């Protein structure tokens, strides 16, 4: 009589437990990485729009009050991942504030950095309800 080869129930259970533990460790880290990556994408779009604002001011003598005046297709521009929407928060001929607001896509709205901003002076900021609130530096790195 030949002995059948295979896995015992105990071996299968141990394997499943190990896989579950590894998943519990890896998934939150990966989710955090995705949020940080989307934030980087939003920062790049904000900085690009700020450069366009400065170009607009040099050409016309005033800042734009809408994203379309900066050469974008609409007044609300979404990042490539769709996790942030960027718009001119406030705009006058002599001042502007650009905002990158997280969307609900991919859970980005739960990012502790909240809304990212940059103004005509190059001042970077955040608007968040997180407690404790992260620093502007940590969100803009």
Number of domains: 1
Number of β-strand runs: 5
Rg (C-alpha, Å): 23 Å
Overall geometry comes to: elongated
Task: Give the rounded overall mean pLDDT.
Answer: 90
Low-pLDDT segments: none
Which structural class is indicated by helix and strand composition?
alpha+beta
Distance between the termini: 67 Å
Proportion of strand residues:
15-25%
- The number of helical elements comes to 2
**If strands are numbered along the chain, what order do they take across the biggest sheet?**
1-2-3-4-5
Helical fraction: 40-55%
How would a textbook summarize the main sheet? Answer: 5 strands, antiparallel
Q: Could you spell the SSE succession in H and E letters?
A: HEEEEEH
Tell me what the structure shows.
With 141 residues, the chain is an alpha+beta fold. It has one domain (9-140). The chain has helices spanning 9-60, 136-140; strands at residues 77-78, 84-91, 96-102, 115-119, 124-127. The chain has a five-stranded antiparallel β-sheet with strand order 1-2-3-4-5. It is elongated, with a radius of gyration of 23 Å.
List the helices and strands and how they pair.
Elements: H1 9-60, E1 77-78, E2 84-91, E3 96-102, E4 115-119, E5 124-127, H2 136-140
Antiparallel strand pairs: 1-2, 2-3, 3-4, 4-5
What's a concise summary of this model?
By secondary structure, the protein is α+β, with helices and mostly antiparallel strands. It has one domain.
Question: What keyword list fits this structure?
Answer:
elongated; single chain; 141 residues; five-stranded antiparallel sheet; alpha+beta
């Amino acid at each position: 009589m030949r002995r059948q080869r295979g896995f015992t129930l105990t071996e299968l259970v141990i394997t499943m437990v190990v896989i579950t533990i590894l998943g519990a460790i890896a998934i939150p880290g990966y989710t955090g990485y995705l949020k940080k990556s989307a934030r980087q994408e939003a920062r790049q779009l904000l900085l690009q729009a700020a450069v366009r604002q400065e170009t607009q001011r040099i050409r016309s003598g005033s800042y734009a009050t809408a994203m379309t005046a900066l050469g974008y297709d609409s007044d609300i521009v979404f990042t490539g991942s769709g996790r942030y929407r960027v718009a001119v928060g406030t705009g006058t001929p002599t001042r502007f504030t650009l905002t990158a607001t997280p969307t609900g896509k991919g859970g980005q709205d739960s990012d502790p950095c909240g809304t990212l901003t940059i103004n005509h002076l190059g001042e970077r900021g955040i608007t968040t309800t997180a407690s404790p609130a992260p620093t502007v530096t940590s969100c803009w790195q």
